[in-house]
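Reopening this one. Same input as before:
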Amino acid sequence: MKKFQCGAVLIMALLMAACTTNISPDTYSVDSVGSVTRSVPGVIVSARPVNVEGTNKVGGLTGAVAGGVAGSAIGGNDRMHALGAIGGAVIGALAGSAIEKGVTNQTGIEYVVKTDSGETLTLVQGPSPAYAVGQKVMILYGKRARIVAQ
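Same output, byte for byte:
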């Protein structure tokens, strides 16, 4: 039983890690290929690290299923199996949600950019590549805006 629980937790962690959103400005979706986007030149005014909160999509469901299966093995009669499954599902859902959120948390950089037209814009993206205050950049608009070196 302990092997099953450890295996279930490992599988949950791997599934949730696969759900981590890529926040790098260097990654494009296949839908972006061939699309035209507007680009605006500007200068980095400030940059600071920020926490990008993780997702909570499949962790609760995965945890509930794993916890329900594991909990159903508790007890010697049908009623105890059912109670164990319900309790396991609730505990598994809570644990799965917490694990997913922890696994999918990321560090990002919040950039404030002053465009050449005088507009001030703020954008959060992944920490690599990093841009320095005073560096000339291009803001690329589209489905997912991003900052790239000029």
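So the earlier flakiness isn't reproducible anymore. For the record, Residues 35-52+105-149 form a domain with the OB fold (Dihydrolipoamide Acetyltransferase, E2P) fold (CATH 2.40.50.590).
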